[in-house]
Amino acid sequence: MVTHAYPRWAGDVAGSFIARLAETLVARGHTVAVVAPADRGRAERFTLNGVAVVQVRYASPAREDLAYVGDMAEKGRASGGFRAFWSLVRALTAGARAEVERLQADLVHAWWWVPGGWAATRLGAPTVISLLGTDVALLKGFPARLLGHRVLGRARGVTTISRYLADETRRRAFRRRLAIDLIPVPADIARFTQASAGGGGIAYLGRLTVQKRVNLLLEAVHQAGITAPVTIVGDGPARADLERLAHRLGLPGVRFLGAIPDAAVLAAIGDADVSAFLARHEGLGLAAAEAQMLGIPVVATTDGGGVLDLVQDGQGGRVVPPTPDAVGAALRSFLGNADARAAARRAGDALRERLSPEGIARAFEQVYARVA
Prior knowledge:
By secondary structure, the chain is of the alpha/beta class. It is 42% helix and 15% strand. It folds into 2 domains: 16-186 and 356-371, Rossmann fold (3-Layer(aba) Sandwich); 189-354, 3-Layer(aba) Sandwich (Rossmann fold). The strands form 3 sheets. It has a 6-stranded parallel beta sheet, sandwiched between helices. A 4-stranded parallel beta sheet has the order 4-5-6-7, with helices on both faces. Strands 1-3-2 form a 3-stranded mixed beta sheet. The relative contact order is 0.11.
């Protein structure tokens, strides 16, 4: 596997969903090695839960900051950023080539078409590329779209996590007939087994960015006159603006908890009545699936993108237009609604099976067998 995000130590969350799959594949009898970038001069070779991890150097320690923190695209556009980015592609290529030769590998699985897919398809080995959303968004402007067209054309298999992303990939990369397997990323299903007892009000879990539209949640709560508590878990560049908006709207029941450890999430939102997932053009939205696994109904919007693969109107959730009126009415309908929580739990049970690491591993094994 070639990726720019993979756990650097036990408990690290960077690329944890990739690790979940890699470890499951090892448990199913495969040999898996992962090539990932160094982190500010730290480059090690180690084994984590049966997976061999090789971190490759690509720049001076101060410049090895493109990976692991989610701002690679911005840094790549900064002064000197593209040189470091190109060095990263070359380092990943060299590291992957060495591991392919060492293992006599059957295939290479690259995560994100860039930089991982670009690096992997330079090897000439059978390659699977998995698209996850942020990389599809980069397919804008003719140079990027042309590069994506070339990289995806070299792969023997392409997967993505939702129908929305598959359609966007074909359109943006000039490959209308590209065969794409729809395989979501595996969820940490063992964490989401309790059932919400209700009473916790409205919950949001995720990054605080403009695209997530937490402002729409606050406006909907205000417009609907909802007095139930609103718990917002997560951090991001929009947090300060959102806190000011909550104050301006007079919403004393809104709590911003920031980023909290995984172990504390269930205590914070596990008994919510409803979860708001109002992001626009989301790649998938695992937080919506996790809420339903807890028996928490989800409100999503008609322009939600990939999350509509997970939230079905009337089956543990509501899909409404992205307006404060519609969102507020949907949120209010779920408050104190035990029948809705039961429906969400049933939907969550189906998602738990669909998103299990074992199920995702079996799906990828079918792709691997076809590609190799």
